[in-house]
Amino acid sequence: MKFSFLGFNAISRPLAEAIVAHPEHQFVAVYAADDEFSPTDFPGVQQEQEWESVLHNSESDMIVISPLLDQNAQEDRLRRVVQCELPAIAI
Question: Is the pTM of this model over 0.90?
């Protein structure tokens, strides 16, 4: 299964590490990563400039929505993911 993250921080990092460690899963894209994200730790993960690109990423099987400082933006993103009928995990 391929995972994309909307937001990346200390809360979502353990999940990303578990995904990378599993031979059948891939961490493919991230938007709004904080200092917890390092391309060295997660090679090959595409860093997106626009969060909507994660919605339209045909590479992803699952969207992981991490806590952000802007609660209103996070609620809007979760609403849009649900409206698009995409599988999601909200942390």
Answer: no
